[in-house]
Request: fold
Amino acid sequence: MVEQVSKRVAVSSGGAEAGRQGPKAEKGGVVRALILDDDPALCQLFSRLAADVGFIPRSTTSRAQFDLEFHDAVPELVVLDLHLGDTDGIEVLRFLSAAGYVKPVILVSGADPRVLMASSRLGKELHLNIAGVVAKPARAAELRDVFAAAYATIQPLSLDRLLAAIPADELELEFQPIVDAKSRKPVSVEALVRWAHPTLGRIAPDRFIPLAERDPACITALTDWVVRSAARAAVELAAAGYLLPVAINVSAHNVRDLEFPERMQGILRSMKVDPGRLMVEVTETAAFGDPIRTTDVLVRLRLKGVDLAIDDFGTGYSSLSALKQLPFSVLKIDKSFVSDLTTSRDSYAIAKSAADLARNMGLGTIAEGVENEETARILSEFGVDHLQGYLISYPLPLARLLLWLRNEDAPG
Ligand code: C2E
Ligand code: CA
Ligand code: CA
Reply:
């Protein structure tokens, strides 16, 4: 029941899609989120997730502090735990209503799901904009989605602005370590792009990659930027003594672009980076649609020495034929089957079959979205080679990745 409610996350539709290309996209400023929860650990988690999707978070465990912060700078989002120590969330809802607050409010509660639904109804009757309800314990991924959806309704983005962001060097890569399932030693990293917007803060790729994909010139420029930056990271990693391959993500347009393999090779040559240091991750959805061109591009990437992974395996419609027809060497089991492996029999079965299939086809396997030890242990029993997920590490900027790697080297 709790699980069900946490999934029944309602986010008010604010016309994000329609507004994305609109002229008002540039008007935004700092997007503050104010979080009130009596559990400091949850304050920290909510802040982290809110920051991930672009908010500048402030959190507090004290009602009095909340009121002060609220009046100091009215936030664009309020995240409210209904179950507070010395007061209850309903009082806070009344406070917000009295203040005439119209921006999104997300309610969180570990109480009976019916309490949550009733509170949400009450909030709406108080003319508040209840943008989402989340039952505890909620999974980080779900919470993040609620925050991201709330953010998207507040700050639409424009394609023109994104096109300008690439040469202006506003994009950044973070690197998430991937480790051997048995020894837990680092084996590679995945590069994930972020947009460090000067006024909107950090924007997650889920918000701007779909926008970039609407324009071939934009996604081409973005992917070329990613190739160059990932190659630069590979050079820095090597200089620090870590010869770890760096995986990059590419879009459907890139794998149909007949010039992409030569361009990627040109970039790597000019930077004196061996193509074997980079790996390309392609989702099966991206890999299909134009099988002749895609095969042409992917085969030539392989011939040039770049390894290929099939990403988000199991989420598209043609996973099996993609595997049979395209020259992949690694299969990445999608996080939707990994993160609830210990509680969902279906996910357990799918993850296990994917691991078996990869082994029988002679492919390496990476499980992404590994969030706890129990999951890591089961995956290791399935024979999965490598693990990636918050259990091991969050994605990190290069300098912090280097510290993390050094720490892993340290004895004990
Ligand atoms: P993806 O390729 O499936 O990347 C994995 C996503 O899972 C990342 O989200 C990562 O931060 C997140 N993640 C890692 N460990 C865990 C975990 O334990 N639990 C959960 N719940 N999530 C975890 P991120 O960085 O927000 O990227 C989202 C998607 O954006 C990526 O999904 C990829 O499809 C796309 N993307 C990221 N960078 C690029 C890029 O440079 N180019 C293109 N075309 N797409 C990119
Ligand atoms: Ca990926
Ligand atoms: Ca994935």
